[in-house]
Amino acid sequence: MPAKVLVSEKGEFLDPDGNQIQLRGVNLDPSVKYPSTPHCKTHDPLTPSFYDDADSVCFINHPLKLEEVEGHISKLKSLGYNTIRYPFTWEALEHEGPEKYDFAFMDYTIKVLKKINDLGGMYVYLDPHQDVWSRFTGGSGAPLWTFYCAGFQPRHFSDTEATILQNTYINPNTGKEREPYPKMLWPTNYYRLAAQTMFTLFFGGKKYAPKCVINGQNIQDYLQDRFIGSVMTFYQRIQETAPDLFNDHCILGLETMNEPNIGYFTDPNLSELPKDRKLKRGTMPTAFQSFQLGEGLPSTVETYDITVFGPRKTGTATIDPQGISAWLSKDMRDEIDQLYHWERGSEWEAGVCVWRLHGVWDRKKLKESELLISDYFAHDPSTGAKVDLRYFINTFFVDHFKKFRKAFRGLDTVSFLFLQPPTLQEPPRLKGTDLIDDKTIYACHFYDGMSLMFKSWNRIYNVDTLGIMREKYANPVLSVVFGENMIRKCFRKQLAQMKEEGRDSLGTNIPVFFTEIGMPFDMDNKKAYRSGDFSSQIGALDALGYALEGSNLSFSLWCYCSDNSHEWGDNWNNEDFSIWSKDNVSEIKISNPAPNSDSDSASDVVSSFSTIPHGHVDSSNDEDLHNDYDGLRALDAILRPYPVKIFGEFENAEFDLSRQEYRLTINAKPDPKSDSSRGGTLIFLPKLHFPMGQTIIKTTSGKFVYDPNQQLLKWSHDSGQQKISLRREIESSKRLDDSDGCVLM
């Protein structure tokens, strides 16, 4: 059973004895983004059933079948991981209709969580996951009925480019791509009519769409209440049917909505593409052009591609929906409203873009239209204040967080609430307010822009992604860093800055947790799958590991996908981030083979470490735990030493993969239970990197006990600043004498 997690006054995670601990693990797993029945992956051809069956889908067995749980958890434990971010979607909970909950899916999920808990030693926190609002807009999250609620006709999204689905790139006869689906095209849906409108209504419908009233509520409140209600219904069912998950400290808590988006807010001129928009790829309609396309009007839009220094205009393209509208006709809307028991306000006219309904634009003739209020979303209509990114986060986003938090704290006052603002943006300034308590965690995400967009690991140069996002550079050229060593340091600096931003805005006592961070595996057009050479992936993930461990940051890698394949990756928009793949099972290629079973015997271990002064190997543990790495990819980089428990405070750490060396510096505290000043720090020391008989330990003070089965080194040390260095001796045949074993520095 895992120990209860506490938080120090400095925002570090602690165990009940006051020792600093680190939480590290994975997102398990992205298969929750699409149903299990029917199995609607994003590379399946688009058919009428995609919409017809939306209310009767089933998510049971996503992310894992019950009989598969133990095997995958075993692999995570072999990596020394202790934490799982567990995504689920609003659609999985409430796909049939408003307040019609899928309790069968909830109960299946509870069985999975119970099985994880029974296996012992893993923490879980729950993630209401979404990407670009819904899988019906090329992402995941919200159920289909939310679009009907807003007056949309989702079947016409592709015709109007209100969204672009990977499914439309697939030939229904062959199941293969008609043409390659562009890398990272799916996030551009955030800037298309459907998703951008849904987020604007969700966060700001009361101020910007007051005519959109449904069942006596503005659509903002209606959508937020349904989302929060479904999440809390799920959470409460876990509490009521599986209280041991909380009593055993398995469930850490709940995260707010994954990667919330700003909608049309901060768009200063609806007739232009915002100059600070970092992602432009493919066709890029302005907001006004997307309004026109949504009502079936043709428009000539700019096209873009991605370069190292940002988006580059490549030309124009004419999109003609030929009169097809993305909005429900009156007859269709009446039928939908009857199905879901909706009654709309008298001012909500059917078949009309909600932004035309509110006077943002108008159609003078059949094919002519005019933008009337170009800065409609750039000012708060109730105060006149300029709506920029900081204003959105500190008002509209905070208003939603306040409602979410109130509902959660009404159910649970002791578990953690993970606060997640928009991606790569500073959190809201809530320091010292009653919206922040000692059970709040700042949840942030980090992805390297270049590696993500180009799906490659460039060792020669990279850019400061966070610096660009913070508008630190007058010219993007100034953000370039050269050389792999400087790139790694740039990553470390960016993560450290995000940690500092969290503490400045939320409080020094608020922990910072990277709930998503990762690297794509399908680099260089999947070259590694043909050659078996994962050096690019290892280099990229090692750079992230270096950055995280430098600030003792807890994290959940994106991701571990139990259905990953080389052909389709994580089965979602050609993403391929999984550290495990079924296509790599029994075909692992690693640079440093793990010791064979003979070298793990108690006698060999004692012989290897018996030369260490003041230390010995604990051979009393007869349990022989099997480290299961089968199917794991870039193992050298994701299997890393780290301080499981620090008797004191963290100061610095670094794992040098190329040199096979790990260094840790701590400020150790005196042990009040002992006459001496020696305390105990636990270090996860994987045998892959530090095999018995080939490891030299140097330290300022200490005795050592190593458990080869758990791969844990217990270091008993003096108080004050203490350092430990562990280095693999490359010449494996060399016998260590007393002077090589342990050196007091």
UniProtKB/TrEMBL annotation:
Keywords: Glycosidase, Hydrolase. It comes from the Eukaryota. One of its GO terms (biological process) is ergosteryl 3-beta-D-glucoside catabolic process. Residues 640-724 form the Glycoside hydrolase family 5 C-terminal domain. GO terms for cellular component: cytosol. Residues 73-133 form the Glycoside hydrolase family domain. Pfam families: Cellulase, Glyco_hydro_5_C. One of its GO terms (molecular function) is steryl-beta-glucosidase activity. Belongs to the glycosyl hydrolase 5 (cellulase A) family. This is LALA0S01e08922g1_1. It comes from Lachancea lanzarotensis.
